[in-house]
Amino acid sequence: MSFPWFRLTLVAGGLMGTGYLMMRATVPSPEQTYAALAPDLRRKVDANRAARLAQERVMKEQIDAQASNSEAGKPIWSDPQKQR
């Protein structure tokens, strides 16, 4: 008698499918979670988002400035005359 691979595959797929459907039915989306927050927590979340976006903007400006600088592409040891 051989091992029932087909039946095992069906049962395993059914279990995983059931778990996925249960997860989709019970886990709220990020928008639902945000809507369910208390007003003071929403203000904190908004403040954190604004701070993160400002920090990312500053970092992007620094990266753009370094990329446009012709000296930034050369290693510091490439010119022995220059010392910091």
List keywords for this structure.
single chain, 84 residues, mainly alpha, 3 helices, 0% strand, chaperone, mitochondrion, transmembrane helix, transmembrane, Cbp4
Note the topology.
Layout lengths: L4 H22 L3 H7 L2 H30 L16
Q: How is this structure best summarized?
A:
By secondary structure, the chain is mainly α. The chain has helices at 5-26, 30-36, 39-68.
Q: What is the chain-wise order of helices and strands?
A: HHH
The beta-strand count equals: 0
Instruction: Name the overall outline.
Output: flat
Structural class: mainly alpha
Distance between the termini: 79 Å
Q: Return the average pLDDT rounded to an integer.
A: 88
Radius of gyration: 27 Å
Please outline the major beta sheet: none
Structure description:
This protein is mostly helical and 84 residues long. It has helices at residues 5-26, 30-36, 39-68. The chain is flat and about 80 Å long. InterPro entries: Cbp4 (IPR012420).
